[in-house]
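Hi W., the zinc ion complex you wanted:
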Amino acid sequence: MPSLQDMLDQVDRLTEEIVELEQSLVRIPSVNTGYMPTGDETKVTNFIGDWLSNEGLTSQVLARDPERGNIISVYPGEQERSRLMFMSHTDVVPVENYDKWRFEPFSATIEGGRIYGRGANDCKALLTCQLMAMAILERNDVRLEHSLRLVSGADEEHGGRWGFGWLADNHPESLESDFAVNEGGGTPVEIGNSLSYLLGTGEKGRMEIKITFRGESTHASVPWTGRNASYSLAKALGSIETYEAERDTSLPIWDHLGKFTIEQRPTPENVEAVIAEAEEKSPRLASLLRALSRMVLTPTMINGGIKSNSVPETFELVCDVRTLPFQTEEYVRKQLDEVLAGVEGVEYEIDYMSVPNSSEFDTPLADAIRRAQSLAVERDDIQWVPAVSNGFTDSRFTRNLGIVTYGFAGSHPDDDPMLSMAHGTNESVGIASLISGTKCMIALAHDMCGAK
Ligand SMILES: [Zn+2]
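Structure:
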């Protein structure tokens, strides 16, 4: 059997094939609007199933809706139970404005060492790396002590009710594994000569808050005979805009800022100065630190008014709230009550989209990740920092099942994460990251599943 290094060398020679696989996946427009029927993920799972079968690997599709398949493939080890699970998702978010894109969003056009397209980064890049890793293991007849599992789910972009959430509730055996790697971390931060990677160990929570403002409708020609709900809305918006969230520096990431050559010891009192210092070194790091130092409250949608000559009776404002791991619903209610104090005719409802969650930082998978990334990009000076992500992913479902799950994609340090534009215009992935990512996934499987 070839050595791990032999297989990593093979990846370089397979660049063209890796790029083609990524392009094929991006060219299947599995757009998830959040409203059924949508997603069409089965088109992707059909493609993957055929592709795996050509490689001599089996797979299975489990679906709550026939058009929204979830694909599961097991690379069998001597022990049936999976030690490692490769996670990803097949759906992509809609394209907001086609005209702003430099290339047709589902063309997977290559330019300047990058592949452009909706889903090129989120999450078809990681999926490509994981599929290629499995195929390369198989092509080399690698025998594993413990099984390796690949699961790519539907509906990640709208809550996972047809994907990992549904699998976790209805087919938990399909997710059986000790460890898992998923999107949502493993991004490089280079400051001067020092290279650090943020390992996704946890995620902020997300809530949707629906605030209703009630007035009294009347004819717009005599507005004083009613009460216009839009003024209450205006007051609330003003108060949200000036809301100063309580600062917090208790997450583990704050103990690691020395790795980014930030010498001040962060406290809730000096955290703004610390973030300003980070801003000069890495705007992206500063943005993350800002998100990890407070609850974030953002108005996102407004609805109201029924006729241009009627004083509106109700307005509805939807806000997105991101909480830190220890910020409970009670905490959020207290904040909202303060923000909305003095606004007339107001009430609100909280809808939990994702509860904050995390895995430990000190595990065999974290060790394997360090080794894999170092081998893949040929650097032995990488520092690792545990980071809670400001977004959320399917990892919350697997963490709930007791599976240690990290956000880790094996990105290349030369591939600037600012260019990835996940969910944005001109989303893309650097080909260098597809290569290093594939190497990382091979090395992880090799180490964690015990290649013989
Ligand atoms: Zn994603």
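The longest strand covers residues 77-89.

W.
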